[in-house]
Q: What sequence folds into this?
């Protein structure tokens, strides 16, 4: 199994892409970049699948939504 990946890396991937996401397109990009067996962790949770990470980030207000989808920005990434 691959090493766990911090959720910040996913958020940085989102920012770098410049894309607007749907849940499905974000899941697809996460799986493509990090692999289907990768687990994710954050400052307060660990062992998450891509879907669980998306749910977690959404519940923490890390996404900025509009009519075209959502993304994030650097101010949403905690610095601790």
A:
């Amino acid at each position: 199994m691959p090493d766990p990946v911090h959720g910040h890396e996913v958020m940085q991937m989102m920012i770098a892409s410049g894309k607007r996401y749907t849940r499905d397109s974000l899941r697809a990009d996460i799986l493509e970049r990090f692999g289907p067996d990768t687990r994710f962790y954050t400052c307060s949770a660990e062992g998450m699948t891509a879907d669980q990470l998306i749910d977690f980030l959404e519940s923490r207000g890390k996404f900025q939504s509009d009519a075209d989808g959502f993304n994030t920005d650097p101010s949403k990434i905690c610095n601790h």
